[in-house]
Amino acid sequence: MKIDFANLQYQHSLYKEEIEEAILKVARNCNFIMGNEVQELEKSLEEFTGAKYAVTCSNGTDALLLAMMALDIKPGDEVITTPFTFIATAETIAFLGATPVFVDIDEKTYNIDPNKIEEKITSKTKAIIPVSLYGQPADIDALEQLKIKHSKLKIIIDGAQSFGSTYNGKTDSNLGDISTTSFFPAKPLGCYGDGGAVFTNDEELANKMKSLRLHGQSKRYHHKYIGMGGRLDTIQAAVLNVKLQYYSKDLALRQEVAKKYNSAFKIKHSKLVLPFVEEGRTSAWAQYSIRVKNRDELQEKLKEVGIPTAVHYPMPLHLQECFLYLGYKKGDFPISEVVSQEIMSLPMNPYVTDEEIEYIIGNL
Ligand SMILES: Cc1ncc(COP(=O)(O)O)c(C=O)c1O
User: Left if phi > 0, otherwise alpha if psi is -120 to 50, otherwise beta: which for 218?
Assistant: First the structure.
């Protein structure tokens, strides 16, 4: 058996006619930049997420930049986040000249540990960026409590992996001051290239981010802010307009796949550490990640029998070369360090079959 990790080709085959027609329509109209499809998508994203404003943009990294620029995060400011995430979360903080301040993760959810945040808050702290890792939102109530105590603090949710996840019934795009997402092809809702979006319920922030993604312009060739070229291509919006219609179904299927993995594992492998989703939250299951002690050997053996795996992420950010200047050292964030040694993602997409799960578990 040869198993596909994300199964994008199969997904394309399901929606082929509609997606190809939507792409062709843009090609025929030549409205490549900010065409009608972009506004149409933003309206649908607002309906889907419940957030008042959805502003699409070039990718999930630029979404983080737009969010921080809208909140005036600048050199000298500190932004608290987790070291156990994709580089973009902290890279964008540093890119704006601010300082990423890391806080270790919770051992069960792998999200930022809210109990360890307060000791890191200083007069320079402007924002906290929790990451909804593997698809599950962090403990937003605890962060909102911190906001009450420290009134200047803002919350930006890095929801690159969690589009459609929920926290006490709200989507994680509808939480925090600003929430971001990525439409990178392998994300739960992926387009056919790069794409992303920011969400907020604050009209002023929404308008500022709309302007920032268009070089900070207020009207054509008049620039209120220093912004960026951060638009979503019309072609990507056209693809997403089709895929969003089927997304609830895809999410439900991912949920089913995760459930099947969980029950298969519980019977046969009681010693593995399985994913844990907190009460009151749902995951978008961007990844189904387990922890094993002998990861490297296991990955190699699984590859030999046609089972692809991946590691998200093998090195926590405080140990990355680019962040040496921050002065962290090994041992500073022990949970992130252990988890990065043991974590391994199994094939996850809406279409993993019962036979594939049986084959994966059997071989494991
Ligand atoms: C947690 C997290 N943040 C940000 C990003 C950046 O998204 P993009 O690749 O669309 O720039 C990713 C993408 O992998 C991510 O996983």
Answer: alpha
